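UDP-2,3-diacylglucosamine pyrophosphatase LpxH: structure, please.
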Amino acid sequence: MKRNVELVVISDVHLGTYGCKAKELLKYLNSINPKTLVLNGDIIDIWQFKKSYFPKSHLKVIKKIISFASKKTGIFYITGNHDEMFRKFTDFKLGKLKLCNKLCLELNGKKIWIFHGDVFDASVQHSKWLAKLGGKGYDLLILINTLINWFLEKMGKEKYSFSKKIKSNVKKAVKFIGDFELTASELAIDNGYDYVICGHIHQPQIREVYNKNGSCIYLNSGDWIENLSALEYNNGSWEIFYYEENKHLFINEEQDDIPDISNDELLKIVTQFA
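Here you go.
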């Protein structure tokens, strides 16, 4: 039985990279029936795109998103830095799917501002080559981490995240995350928003931020590389959904509602943007 969800936000999927957990994401998408789905940037990683590596599991995620758009789900694809090539097509619409750089919604009288968040990242704005190099290094780190976790799992031991350990111990990384959240929140407060939703930093979060001008709720959907997380809105409240904590909800259905598009045809479409 699929769960009805009013609004779902996912970001930082990075389809086309070794670290992407496309199979897990597909299970999650197959388990829900969202009224609105927001794809908040870095869904397809065009920075690191290689035609030689775009597995069927990654293509199935794209097909699933198309299947949502062909039914009753409204889909907003907000561009990020890794899929910035799509920004030239801003405001493009295809059925129920709309491409945009940011999104403003109102839910139960509350104003919501959604954007990816790379605008706050100096390395992306002023040293793109450095950001791309960092992206490749991160992808390599995740690949090595995946192999090590495979061995740990075989030995019955708990998985380990190099990236999370680095972020939690390096003061600069911790400060960057805190500054990012504060900057986004203060801008939202100044512009009269009740909620601000970002991605980009791969850090799931729901927290209230105050300043002299007021307050807002800052939210981040995390990612589908390490945290395997999404934001869900139902009955006036937000929750962070973690795949690992909710495996019992997933059932083996179901590719019956996925459009009949060949993987080769879909890959040709993706390649045009890469």
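Notes: Helices lie at 22-30, 56-69, 122-126, 128-154, 162-169, 171-190, 263-273.
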